[in-house]
Amino acid sequence: MKFFRFLSIAALLVVSLTATALAAPKSIKVATDATWPPMEMVDVNKQIVGYDIDFLNAVAKELKIAVEFKNTAWDGIFAGLDSGQYDAIISSVTITDERKAKYDFTDAYTSIGQILVVPKTDKTAKTIADLKGKKVGSQIGTTGTMEVKKVVGVESKTYDEIGLAFEDMAAGRISGVVCDEPVAAHFALQKKEYKEKFKIVGKSFTKEGYGIVVKKGNKELVDLLNKGIKAIKTKKLDAKIHTKWVK
Known about the structure:
Blueprint: H1 2-23, E1 27-32, E2 35-36, E3 40-42, E4 48-49, H2 51-63, E5 66-71, H3 74-82, E6 88-89, H4 97-100, E7 103-105, E8 110-112, E9 114-119, E10 135-139, H5 143-149, E11 155-159, H6 162-170, E12 176-180, H7 181-190, E13 198-201, E14 208-210, E15 213-215, H8 219-234, H9 237-245
Parallel strand pairs: 1-5, 1-6, 10-11, 10-12
Antiparallel strand pairs: 2-3, 3-4, 6-15, 7-15, 8-14, 9-12, 9-13
């Protein structure tokens, strides 16, 4: 009787371990809106590159899984996750309570803040409030837009891609752009056609953590990705990726 019980327990353990192994995917499909440099963008060779891409590839290497990236417009990226077109999203997605009510997030893999960019000809603006009576641009559905809309007297103008906001500011159609610090640095300090026209003013006025998004209830994938994120940070590979992409 004891021997039979031992075999039964052993059999259950094998089944449990097998189920756990099966639960770990060999590959995952991940969406990103590759219009947010230097975090995610398309290079001259039509390849999706950037901080987030390198970070998730490093995570995948640690976990011994493959990643397929799918370039997806921001305005439909969450709907695509809902319908099962991909397993996760990595696209500079800030972890917010509103988003956590609908989706599950990994631990934050990096943190940033929102910041204001204005033309160099503007000698007075330091905050969004200094642009009352004027138009301020941001990408639709982002925390940058949320911050602009908080300021009474400022007209919020949203864009499908953040690059279009900078184009409008260069043409004089808006007076400022609010976006994540790395994106602001890319456009205002590094991009050849803009670095003589724009400047970053003031300090970042939010503190936000980026997380990888998965469907609500997919604890197995969240736990797996968190394991990889922890390994990357323990090995300080995140610092190397940051140095490569964020100037």
